[in-house]
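Q: Structure for this?
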Amino acid sequence: MDTLTIGSRTFNSRLLVGTGKYKDFTETQEAVEASGAEIVTVAIRRTNIGQEQGPNLLEFINPNTTTILPNTAGCYTITDAVRTCQLARELLDGHDLVKLEVLGDEKTLFPNMSQTIEAAKILIEDGFQVMVYCTDDPIACQELDDLGCVSIMPLASPIGSGLGITNPYNIQIILENATKPIIVDAGVGTASDAAIAMELGCDGVLMNTAIAEAKKPVLMASAMRKAIESGREAFLAGRMSKRLYASKSSPGDGTID
Amino acid sequence: MTAQRLQIVLNGSSITLKSSSLSDLVDSLNLTNARYAVEVNQEIIPKSAIADYTLTNNDVVEIVIAVGGG
């Protein structure tokens, strides 16, 4: 069985999905189910004060088939990211798996790597299993791997951009050095992008906008599931080498006159 | 004599409370279906400790839930 192990947990699916930007929780639920994802990210936010509390997202996520992955999206400082993880752990009754992101800039949503590394150290020390959103810089990824993050998650391109894998060569270098699962996080736009990530040898892909902003999100979730599976199988199968000229597939001999 | 009123900051907004009980404040938000976490002055208050927790003037309270995100 080709499974994915992240920290102390093992999964069958290599597609991780976010829950943002859907039109309602029913659509979120249907998309998550169609994706087959077993890891589902959520954000941690203040409750609205003085407003009717509507349904809650967590009621729409099946705890028997999915692991909740709280993120620190929107955090621009080490302190806020650490506090958010601690609140998430309390909210989820001691759950220790988190997605760390410390952002550097509103416009690019690129991670601030020096702060990300510091926050990762604090969280690991505090007992968290840290999956970390980072740049596709092989040196930074190596450092996060060395300091004990359970999964390294380089961006393919900016969050929500749909630009796809902009630097496959960096991803390749990161994969060569990795001792932890490498999960491309952010930037995937369509199924072929996800397949490319998997064909490169990535252990998984985390996406949100590519599914949520598709015209038919549930159908795109299903497409992504297949892309991840086929990309993974292609990687395991090992692709043929490229050659410049043609090579016959049918025998050269025995053709009729 | 008027009841002692308490000024706190809840999720970034200044509010006045009649009760200093943290669980009264949480109950007033009708979070019945939601899983939530509470922080006072940047310290997490475990769910088991909320019932006995007494707020004081100028406390800064954060109450968070899980929402959609990527």
